[in-house]
Amino acid sequence: MASRLTKYVTENAYINTSVQKGGIPGISGCLEHATMIWEAIQRAKSEKLNLDVIWLDLANAYGSVPHEMIQLALRMYHVPEVIQVMLDDYFSGFRMRFSTNNYTTSWINLEVGIAMGCTIPPILFVMAMEVILKAAEGSAGPANLGGGCSMPPLKAFMDDTTIICSKEDETRRMLTRLDDLMSWCRMEFKPKRSRSLSIRRGKVDEATTFTVAEQQIPTVSQEPVKSLGRWYDSSMKDTRRGAETLELASESLLAINKCGLQGKFKIWCLQFMLIPKLLWPLLVYDICSSTVEAIEAKINKYTRKWLGVPPGLSNVAMYCRKARSVDKLGHCLTEILDME
Question: Cross-referenced Pfam families, in alphabetical order (predicted)?
Fold first, then answer.
């Protein structure tokens, strides 16, 4: 049912994938959203534009979505009634009770929350969030990024929602609208876990702040934020991330080298544990080539050591899959023995 429902909403374009990229197969939502948000910040910085970016964190997202909200989404997207009834029966079976040393309560029917261990709730949560996003999208126009480029004012990945606006009044209107909608469906944002970034004429404006749930949202100048696998701070640069990636590579290589494993197993740890861990920051951050070359040099140094090959062995000989160095070496040894 989960795959059929996902296919149904995608083929009928009920989910706006330019805004919501969570739970949609075939889309690298984290990477796409993180790249587009960073590109918007960099364009505002280089073009000296105004831009407000607010990262909103939903409190207990999957545990607080009302079942009635899910039914509303199913009706809005014209899901067949038989499926609606099946899902209603499924969620009506969610019950809980509390026990103490003295007594046990009766069973209580749960009206909120979805079971993340099941395959159907993720797409249902996306549909419920889409109802909220569609109701709020008209509160602000596309963000102006200069050069004829624009971006939708909302970006979402499951419950991670980001507001991107060029005008402060539109930002506040969008934030108020989202806050009202969340209150209407008995959900709420967590101000302490949310962050804001205000750019005025290409520079960070720390004086501009926003509120949600009657509390002020911290700025990235006060506390940097990590959203969809990417860090954002007031520097609007990735210099620190490059240094952290180099430090991670150095410390990890040293830890692998100190372990008591044989060289071939250390190579396995490098290939299947460390390299995948380094690929994400190298993919998502703007890391300069000199830092990447420094990481490569450290990896090559330890690889030669663990393989037991000479330090002067070229990278081509060490990594080329088509090279047959072992066969050639064996052939040379055979010739030497024949000469003797």
Answer: RVT_1 (PF00078)
